[in-house]
Amino acid sequence: MRYLISIMVAFAFCVPARAEILIFKTHIGGHQFDVANNVVEMKKESGYLAIDANLSNPNSITISETQFLHYETKTGRKIQYTTLPSDAELILVDYGRGKKMVLRFFDDTTGTYMVLSGNASLKDIGGLSRFTAIGLSGNDVWQQQDYMTGSGSIRMTLDLKATRLSNIQSTTVTQLIENYGQILEQTKGYIPE
User: Fold this and answer.
1) What is the pTM of this model?
2) Which of 33, 55, 93, 118 could form a disulfide with 133 if both were Cys (CB 3.0 to 4.6 A apart)?
3) What's the number of domains the chain is made of?
4) What pLDDT, in 10s, does the model give residues 97-134?
5) Whole-angstrom Cα distance, residue 49 to residue 47?
6) Residue 70 domain boundaries
7) What does 117-157 look like in DSSP terms, one character per residue?
């Protein structure tokens, strides 16, 4: 019996921790300043942010991968896929009335800095109950080389149905964003709800 217990304990430590996928629908609005031509433009984009993180320990969340697909809201023109920097942080913070989820990152290559937060509660994300925020909001600031700079506000809403499905099917972040991009191209720029 002792031998069986030691095998079970050894096996438990050999099984890799399963990371969980969170999929957020994103909405970005703001202004961008074309420095070279002295033009101020409105920026309105939508998209999807997929995060692969280990949420099992709320005190120490680790992110394996994040990808962001965004497109112009009016035209539906795909703008870009972005892999968020490896030092992106997803944090759960205790405060007087509960928990807040905070997502922040700085991308040195594009000069983008983003901080988002929202109330977190236990949610079923596909067979697993984890603390997560249904909505995140905040601001971003960016500078693209010397010619464009801007700032905006961001709202993200957890797509609970897609999150649950991706965790049940063990879909990767890369597969999710590629699928969304293909749908975007096939529908001439619009991802159906």
Assistant:
1) 0.79
2) 118
3) 1
4) 889 999 998 877 667 788 999 999 999 999 889 999 99
5) 7
6) 20-186
7) EEEEEEEESSS-EEEEESEEEEEEEEEETTTEEEEEEEEEE
